[in-house]
Design brief:
Elements lengths: L7 E9 L2 E10 L4 E6 L8 H11 L3 E10 L7 E4 L1 H16 L8 H5 L5 E4 L5 H53 L5 H16 L7 H15 L2 H20 L4 H21 L3 H21 L4
Parallel strand pairs: 3-4
Antiparallel strand pairs: 1-2, 2-4, 5-6
Helix pairs in contact: 1-4, 4-7, 4-9, 5-6, 7-8, 8-9
Length: 296
């Protein structure tokens, strides 16, 4: 399966029984799947179906979904007079005229008052929706397919970047494993130098005891366990990227494990060379985790 990014954009223009419509879908990163739909008046009834279409194709991401309609050229809005409201206005104006507070209102003045003339848009009528709703939902399916394709295209680019970061991690783990400072002889030499610095160059050193202490130190600061776990986690991450699908959360968990092991390597390090490797490993892991946040 392909790897999917959580960011993408798709637009679909369609025609439903003479009326044009446009779906626009925008997707960004998110911990889960969050859908925000903006639908024209009268189309709220398709929201449940629209959410099912979206959630069946996507598992993560914050999505902004909008639907806009174009009125057919031959469709004109219908006008009507709110007679109840107009009668009340006429009654009040008649009282003011009789009291000498106003002159008789003109017809154009009355019609200009908000609420006197009502506009009835046929697109808001159930009949209009019933004829076009199914086509609009089919258009949403096409828009979702386009969004999925866009997210997969970006996801494949992210896969390449993540594999490159895993290669760097693997190389650094190999360097840590082969670092000369991990050798017992190097530890013994370092311990000898520390004792001489404390007691003086002419101090008598018990060679057997020195090697014994070096062996104890080597056991305490050995990073073989951390290296083995890092190697296992790297292999697991490679497997996830090869399989594809919704792997973002699993990769994020592995990123945390990478970071934990690299922290331990740095804390156990007793040599500048090994510390440098551990710090570079942390840099690469941070780069890996940053890119993982974009994966579905």
């Amino acid at each position: 399966m392909p790897v999917r990014s959580m960011t993408g954009f798709a637009r679909f223009e369609g025609l439903a029984d003479g009326a044009g419509f446009v779906w626009e879908l925008r997707s960004v990163n998110g911990k889960g799947l969050e859908l925000r739909l903006r639908l024209p008046q009268g189309f709220e009834r398709i929201e449940a179906d629209a959410r099912r279409i979206l959630s069946s194709a996507l598992s993560r991401g914050n999505l902004q979904i909008s639907l806009s309609l174009d009125r057919p050229e031959n469709a004109l809005p219908a006008f009507s007079i709110n007679q109840t409201f107009l009668n009340e206005i006429l009654r009040l104006s008649d009282e003011l005229v009789r009291a000498g507070h106003a002159t008789s209102p003109s017809a154009d003045g009355l019609l200009a008052l908000r609420g006197v003339i009502e506009v009835t848009d046929e697109a808001h009528q159930p009949e209009w929706f019933e004829a076009r709703g199914p086509s609009v939902l089919e258009g949403l399916k096409a828009a979702v397919a386009a969004l999925v394709a866009a997210r997969e295209q970006e996801g494949e680019a992210l896969r390449t970047l993540l594999v490159a970061r895993l290669n760097e991690m693997e190389a650094l783990v190999g360097q840590a494993l082969e670092d000369p400072s991990r050798a017992p002889e190097a530890l013994a030499a370092r311990l000898r130098q520390q004792v001489m610095d404390l007691l003086g160059a002419d101090a008598l050193l018990d060679t057997a005891r020195l090697h014994q202490e070096a062996a104890v130190m080597a056991t305490k600061i050995d990073i073989r366990e951390e290296i083995d776990r890092l190697t296992t986690h790297i292999a697991a991450a490679r497997g996830l990227l090869a399989d594809g699908g919704a792997i973002g959360r699993k990769l994020d968990f592995l990123s945390q494990e990478f970071n934990r092991e690299s922290n331990t390597i740095c804390s156990k390090s007793h040599a500048a060379s090994l510390t440098a490797i551990g710090l570079q490993l942390k840099v690469v892991i941070d780069q890996f985790r940053e890119q993982v946040q974009n994966i579905e």
